[in-house]
Amino acid sequence: MKYLTPFLVSILLITSNQTLAATLYIDPATATLHRGDTLISAVRLMPDKENGECINVIDAVLEYSENIQPVDTSIGKSILSVWIEEPTINKEDRTISFAGGIPNGYCGRVDGDPSLTNIIAEIMFRSPGLQIGVKSTSTEAVVSFLPTTQILLNDGQGTKAPLTTYGMKVALENDPAANITDDWHRLVREDDLPPEEFSINLIRDEKGINFNGRYYIIFSTKDKQTGISHYEVMEEPLSQFSSFAWGGVGKEWVKANSPYILDDQTLNSTIRVRAFDKAGNEYVATLVPDESLRSDVAGFKNNSLNMVAIVSIVVLVIIIFTSIYYVRRRKKEALEREVESEVAGEITNDEEADFDKESSNQK
Predict the structure, then answer these.
(1) Which of 79, 84, 233, 289 could form a disulfide with 99, with the two C-beta atoms 3.0–4.6 Å apart?
(2) For residues 274 and 283, is the Cβ–Cβ distance under 8 A?
(3) Which one, of 304, 314, 59, lies nearest residue 165 by Cα?
(4) CA-angle at 53, arms to 50 and 56, nearest 5°
(5) Residue 118, CB half-sphere, CA atoms under 13 Å: how many?
(6) Residues 302, 268: Cα–Cα separation, whole Å
(7) Could you give phi then psi for residue 280, rounded to 5 degrees?
(8) Cis peptide before 6 (omega within 30 of 0)
(9) Closest Cα partner for 125 from 41, 200, 195?
(10) Pairs from 82-89 (Cβ < 8 Å, separation ≥ 24)
(11) What is the chain's Cα-based Rg?
(12) What is this structure's pTM?
């Protein structure tokens, strides 16, 4: 696999007589893939620094030709910190869409910075492998931005900025190379670092506008090697009493996105969020809600008191029924002994009468 990686967009911008505008482009602009090879491409942003332009929202849609396949995406190196829609591959429409923002805006690379710190997202494309008996005639694949792609200025008004886009052209060799190139899976195999540490923020809108006033959490982190794969959340009850407040002591991890509405609105749970990167490494963040928040929830206290009352009643009922059982048993045993005594007395009297009778006859 060979990449033609000169900074083509910069040359075009320098030599162009067009009106200056922000630029979204794919790097590399051109590449060559053998069958089965995988290419890591980056979507990059260049604001119009001549006009002091700063960008804080990007809403983009890419389309790709049918003779190339997107196999994964990564936002581990992205300059976007807020995502409305993470890169999503739609194989039916052959599109890749994403939308996000940059608080305070992105105004371009800092002068003197030698690195290209302007990545929005990375996309991995693969040239399809050969099929037995089939010889492909496709020699070029194209990836381009749809006209719906737009960027907004960081001017407090969401003004749509003039935009120029540059896609990517990939020359497709009809035969596989001696060794298949797959830099993406190599990066995944070599990634042994967990995602960056992060914290969990507990929020409730007192006015009830967001999520009807229910408690929810927000969380986010990055993984600069392969990117975040997904998040999972677990709400672990603090004590057995909490199981009567919202149901179930044994809780499991559930796949989740931020923001996440808590199941346990009494806040009597330890909240854990774990982030996985695409190599399977994980980092777990933990939040124990402040006790003052838990004490404000009367329902939990009432449930605890109710549980104590229920247990007391059950114990009392057991004692009463046990006492009744033993009282009845003692009465029954006493009655049986009394009957046995009477029977024994009658037998003794009969024996004495027979003895007296026999004695009279002998006389």
Answers:
(1) 84
(2) yes
(3) 59
(4) 155
(5) 23
(6) 13
(7) 95, 0
(8) no
(9) 41
(10) 84/59, 87/121, 87/123
(11) 39
(12) 0.68
Nearest to 200, CA basis, from 216, 186, 214: 216
89: exposed, middle or buried (Cβ count in 10 Å: 0-12, 13-18, 19+) = middle
Whether the ω angle into residue 70 lies within 30 degrees of 0, i.e. cis, is no
φ/ψ (deg, to 5) at 183: -65, -30
CB neighbours of 73 closer than 8 A, spacing ≥ 6? Answer: 86, 87, 89, 96, 121, 122, 123, 124, 227
What pLDDT does 240 receive? 47
Side chain identity, residue 249: V
**How high is the pLDDT of residue 355?**
52
Token digits of residue 206? 């007192």
pLDDT below 50 — which residues of the chain? 2-19, 132-134, 240-248, 296-301
Q: Nearest Cα to 12, choosing from 29, 31, 36?
A: 29
The two structure tokens encoding residue 229: 């794969």
Q: What is the DSSP letter of 4?
A: E
Q: How far is Cα 139 from Cα 184, in angstroms, rounded to an integer? A: 23
Amino acid at position 202, single letter: L
Helix/strand/coil (H/E/C) assignment for every residue in 48-94? CHHHCCCEEEEEEEEEECCCCEEEEEECCCCCCCEEEEEEEEECCCC
Query: Encoding tokens for residue 352?
Result: 């004495």
What are the angstrom distances between the C-alpha of 37 and each of 31, 226, 309? Answer: 11, 18, 69
Instruction: Compute CA distances 335 → 176, 338, 339, 348, whole Å.
Output: 101, 5, 6, 20
Query: Residue 151: is it exposed, middle or buried by C-beta count within 10 angstroms (0-12/13-18/19+)?
Result: buried
Q: Which two tokens stand for residue 23?
A: 């630029």
